[in-house]
Design brief:
Calcium-transporting ATPase, cytoplasmic transduction domain A, Rossmann fold, 7-stranded mixed sheet, 6-stranded antiparallel sheet, 22 helices, elongated, binds adenosine-5'-diphosphate, binds magnesium ion
Length: 642
């Protein structure tokens, strides 16, 4: 049994039949209906008053039990549930002798609650299906024998034996074998990914084809899957702004309705001379039709469904509030590297200065970059490796964020980086080198890195990152979805950035930025254009992601930092999820407003009809509960794909 459903109360009968609320609640509804029929028949045959009252009383208990429980729980926290209005109306009806009508009210009210719970359970199931991706036991290799170990007890460093068709139980690294992995459960991406020794595999993904050994890198509670589950359940619990507003308004509204109905019952007979009984009955109808049940459920019904739909597509919203914000976004800023491009640059040219050998330039470059984490460093090292250069560790190393690296060995300092690194350091390039850098920049294709060791300028190297082939199309999709301005932010060179910007159809390019510049620009956008989204790879863009109205981290299945900093996490390394998320958020917002408008309209129409032409209680209840159910069903439409 999942931890999510354990919150409902449970009891076991001697027969072993499980009696929890999901069984008892519909049973009580059925008993209420039976009681209504029995009560009406007994009244018809003029049975003794004691018996009739006993049946009516029992019917009220069955019909009002769950509402009463909710009311008591709410009163303990000093809040008012709208259920209170319904129970008061039913008791009031009984007071003027309209027992059957009051019972019909309770019946329809509890029936509608059962239907709502059933509907909401469908969104909860989207999370339970994630829970099912976790096995109870794991096959672990120990001294060449295989043992079954409970999931929670598998230690970091243990070796797991995976058979073809097994789900990966824990995050780890492949140490033997290669195979295809279906990651769709986490990322929504249906194409299997090939992985070999040294590659990271994530809990919840499916090993399709091979027998492999995986070394565990994280305990069960910290796996990416475990964190997704926590995040999605927390997201569903966290309230959007509209919803918290409605929750607070509900309190005052409910009190206001009770007060107004009390005044109505006391004052109308005084002034109009109509009978007290009639006015009281009308007051009970008012209490029912004015209660905001549909309004209260209208927002969560939509948001929960949308969050569940998104999770199925590998898009994690960290709360309903972010759906609301994303729907209002007009500007999206993209980090270039790793977002619009693959983020795996390759070395294209190595151009030594006169008197320097290519070997010397490359060896110096590789040694200086050896300890850097930057994708540029990885490109240089794999290029050096292909040329059979094995760099030695430098004596000191430091990264100069957004500009380059500084390393030293043999009492001599080496600088590698963008022209800005040298400008800022007060070093001006010799004119021949400057001319070459300008020429390369003019081509606008690659990032130019300058290498200087001691007093000598050794030359330049260029690295190029490929744009994602679908980037231009995805940007068009975003425009079609209603995003008005698309911006690129990058630490890379102006010419390279502009060339890519033109190719992809981007409105505005800001280049040669340091991380703090990105943050400043994102804040500026917020002030100029209103809600702004920032899309980054989540690794070195954390400040800008945090500064944006809504931070979207992409390709996050493997990185921990991104899961923490962003508001929306795209599990797949794929741009198409952004337009999906934007469209989903706008669809959600439309449905939220439809629900709110409809719920309010029904209340207004019913209240006016009750005050003017008069509405029988059962009809008022049908209108009231009907609108509640319609609003929930309308919200559930968000579980479906558009
Ligand atoms: P982006 O905004 O595209 O993610 P960064 O802020 O990481 O770029 O880096 C900006 C620029 O700084 C790079 O284009 C490069 O010129 C220079 N740079 C950063 N790190 C390194 C490095 N390890 N080696 C050489 N140059 C670097
Ligand atoms: Mg970056």
């Amino acid at each position: 049994m999942s931890s999510l459903s354990q919150t409902r109360t449970e009891s076991r009968t001697p027969l072993g039949l499980q009696l929890d609320d999901s069984v008892l609640e519909p049973l009580f509804v059925a008993l209420t209906l039976a009681g209504i029929v029995a009560g009406a028949l007994l009244e018809r045959v003029a049975a003794p008053t004691g018996i009739v009252l006993a049946v009516h009383g029992a019917t009220y208990v069955f019909g009002g039990w769950y509402a009463l429980r909710a009311i008591v729980a709410a009163l303990r926290e000093r809040t008012i549930e709208v259920d209170l209005l319904m129970v008061l109306a039913a008791l009031g009806a009984a007071y003027v002798g309209a027992w059957t009508e009051g019972a019909i009210l309770l019946f329809l009210f509890s029936l509608s609650n059962v239907l709502q719970h059933y509907a909401m359970a469908r969104t909860e199931r989207a999370i339970s299906s994630l829970l099912e991706l976790r096995p109870d036991t794991v096959t672990v290799r120990r001294d060449n024998t295989l043992v079954e170990v409970p999931l929670e007890e598998v230690a970091v460093g243990a070796l797991i034996a995976l058979r073809p068709g097994d789900r990966v139980p824990l995050d780890g690294v492949i140490v033997r074998g290669r195979g295809n992995f279906d990651e769709s459960a986490l990322t929504g991406e249906s194409m299997p990914v090939q992985k070999a020794e040294g590659a990271q595999v994530l809990a919840g993904t499916l090993n399709q084809s091979a027998a492999l050994d995986v070394q565990v890198t994280k305990p069960a509670s910290e796996s990416t899957l475990a964190r997704i589950i926590t995040m999605v359940s927390e997201a569903q619990a966290r309230k959007a702004r509209t919803q918290s507003f409605l929750d607070r308004a509900e309190q005052y509204y409910a009190l206001g309705v009770i007060g107004a109905v009390a005044l109505f019952i006391l004052l109308v007979p005084l002034f109009s001379g109509s009978a007290f009984g009639d006015t009281f009955y009308r007051g009970m109808v008012l209490l029912t039709v004015a209660s905001p049940c549909a309004l209260v459920i209208s927002v969560p019904a939509a948001l929960l469904s949308a969050i569940a739909n998104a999770a199925r597509h590998g898009v994690l919203f960290k709360g309903g509030a972010h759906l609301e914000e994303l729907s209002r976004v007009k500007v999206i800023a993209f980090d270039k590297t790793g977002t619009l491009t693959y983020g795996h640059p390759e070395v294209t040219d190595v151009l030594p200065q006169p008197g320097v050998s290519e070997h010397e330039l490359l060896e110096t470059l590789a040694r200086a970059e050896l300890q850097s984490e930057h994708p540029i460093a990885r490109a240089i090292l794999s290029y050096a490796d292909a040329k059979r250069i094995a760099p030695v560790e430098p004596e000191t190393f430091s990264a100069i964020t957004g500009m380059g690296v500084r390393a030293s060995w043999d009492n001599c300092e080496t600088l590698v980086g963008s022209p800005r690194l040298f400008q800022d350091g007060g070093l001006s390039l010799p004119s021949a080198l400057q001319a070459e850098v300008d020429r390369l920049h003019g081509e606008g294709r690659a990032t130019v890195l300058i290498v200087r060791r001691g007093e000598r300028w050794l030359g330049v190297a260029t690295v190029m990152d490929r744009a994602r082939p679908d980037a231009a199309e995805r940007i068009r999709e975003l425009r079609a979805a209603g995003i008005e301005r698309i911006v690129m932010l990058t630490g890379d060179n102006q010419a390279v950035a502009e060339a890519l910007g033109r190719q992809l159809g981007i409105d505005e390019v800001h280049a040669e930025l340091l991380p703090e510049d990105k943050l400043r620009i994102v804040e500026q956008f917020g002030r100029t254009y209103g809600p702004t989204a920032m899309v980054g790879d989540g690794v070195n863009d954390a400040p800008a992601l945090a500064a944006a109205t809504i931070g979207i981290a992409m390709g996050a299945a493997g990185t921990d930092a991104a899961l923490e900093t962003a508001d929306v996490v795209l599990m797949a390394d794929d741009l198409s999820a952004i337009a999906y998320a934007v469209k989903l958020s706008r669809r959600t917002q439309r449905i939220v407003w439809q629900n709110i408008a409809f719920a309010m309209a029904v209340v207004v129409v019913l209240v006016i009809s009750t005050l003017t032409i008069g509405v029988p209680l059962p009809l008022g209840v049908v209108g009231h509960e009907g609108s509640t159910i319609l609003v929930v069903l309308n919200g559930l439409r968000l579980l479906r794909n558009a």
